[in-house]
């Protein structure tokens, strides 16, 4: 089904200019190199809150790199956000999100820690989620030194980062060590079974399609997605018990491949007694925020920041 006529017209120039991911094991190094080039160009722009690199010792013996953004002129204790970047579990770094995160930190007066988690396929599940949990533990353990309020810590992520954010909320609940006040899931990549289900014909034509989804999940899981028992810490939608999770905002485009899995997860959270704010943006495929100046992208960004502001208020 051709869905171009359904796309918000303000998004079309950016969609036409954005290259298809089309990653394979052979092309993945080139895809990562291209993403690194985009990230370096973003990093050259001035930002209102400069990131500070931190290295966090992990129980497995390696270090987890992260970027800390803390407004210098805000007295503590501040609320904090653990941010997890997107990239289909196979590409990306925290630097790609710094411009938006920096402005969020300034506007909301929050500290943000963005995690450079290990990527698949070199590091399949559970490497990435364990790195995120390590970063959450560091944020709690160093709350006093950082001027952070440990009872006002949220997790947020987009795409694969949103899937990791949802999985981290499950892991934090189950392990009972580090409480989370809120989860912001932006078009989360959270259900490997989408790879084998009949496709919603209105979704998945732009930016990130079914082949991209299957490749990302196969790298993370080390095998064919949609098969057998998969841990909910890998694919949060696999969780059968959702009670006791923190309140959530779930945002997704109406043309996004992840639409059905995201809406289903929102409805299941609501049925489990979890407060959920759900936004479905018409005319928007996955990654529509690359058209940063489009009215719908600006509206979505305001919605997400306002949800964080409310959730982390004293």
Automatic annotation (TrEMBL):
<dbReference type="GO" id="GO:0016787">
    <property type="term" value="F:hydrolase activity"/>
</dbReference>
<feature type="domain" description="Alpha/beta hydrolase fold-3">
    <location>
        <begin position="81"/>
        <end position="289"/>
    </location>
</feature>
<dbReference type="InterPro" id="IPR029058">
    <property type="entry name" value="AB_hydrolase_fold"/>
</dbReference>
<keyword id="KW-0378">Hydrolase</keyword>
<dbReference type="Pfam" id="PF07859">
    <property type="entry name" value="Abhydrolase_3"/>
</dbReference>
<protein>
    <submittedName>
        <fullName>Acetyl esterase/lipase</fullName>
    </submittedName>
</protein>
<dbReference type="InterPro" id="IPR050300">
    <property type="entry name" value="GDXG_lipolytic_enzyme"/>
</dbReference>
<dbReference type="InterPro" id="IPR013094">
    <property type="entry name" value="AB_hydrolase_3"/>
</dbReference>
